[in-house]
């Protein structure tokens, strides 16, 4: 698990390879990741947007931008957390993801970005 804290908002990521959904003969490797966002700040925030940078070991990179996460734009009160699970496919056995969320502080509508820490996407057999 990796984590980052930006403006007292903590983002942690846990990632796992999904062999059942993968097809190595077709260069398809699927990973799921669980994100936990904990609001350790003094104000309620709303997650508005996501920005991902995804890279594989061939050097291919792609960017993904969108509203919210998994169809939601959650409001996270002081001391609360929001958790979701999503997935990513690669054409290689090794890669990574990283990015940021655009948040809004509800007390004054200030927009700011919080880091999603880089996490590795690795087929377990490659670790041996």
Brief synopsis:
This protein has strands at 2-6, 9-17, 29-39, 45-56, 61-67, 75-76, 81-90, 94-105, 110-122. By secondary structure, it is mainly beta. Strands 4, 5, 6, 8 and 9 form a 5-stranded antiparallel β-sheet that branches. The protein has a 4-stranded antiparallel β-sheet with strand order 1-2-3-7, with no helix packed on it.
Keywords:
128 residues; mainly beta; Immunoglobulin-like; 5-stranded antiparallel sheet; 4-stranded antiparallel sheet; 9 strands
Order of helices and strands: EEEEEEEEE
C-alpha-based Rg, rounded: 16 Å
Q: List the total number of helices.
A: 0
| CATH structural architecture | Sandwich
Assign an overall shape.
Answer: elongated
Task: State the CATH class.
Answer: Mainly Beta
The average pLDDT value, as a whole number, equals 96
Give the termini distance in whole angstroms.
19 Å
Low-confidence parts, pLDDT < 50 over ≥5 residues? none
Number of domains: 1
Question: Percent helix among the residues?
Answer: under 10%
Strand content: over 45%
Mind describing the biggest β-sheet?
Answer: 5 strands, antiparallel
CATH topology: Immunoglobulin-like
CATH superfamily: ApaG domain
Instruction: Give the helix/strand class.
Output: mainly beta
């Amino acid at each position: 698990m990796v984590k980052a804290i930006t403006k007292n908002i903590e983002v942690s990521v846990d990632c796992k390879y999904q062999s059942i959904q993968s097809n190595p003969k077709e260069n398809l490797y699927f990973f799921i990741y669980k994100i936990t966002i904990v609001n350790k700040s003094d104000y309620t925030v709303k997650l508005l947007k996501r920005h991902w940078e995804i890279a594989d070991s061939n050097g291919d990179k792609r960017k993904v931008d969108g509203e919210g996460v998994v169809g939601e734009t959650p409001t996270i009160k002081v001391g609360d957390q929001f958790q979701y699970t999503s997935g990513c496919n690669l054409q290689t056995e090794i890669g990574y993801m990283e990015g940021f969320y655009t948040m809004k502080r509800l007390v004054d509508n200030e927009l700011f970005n919080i880091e999603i820490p880089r996490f590795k996407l690795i087929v377990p057999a490659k670790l041996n």
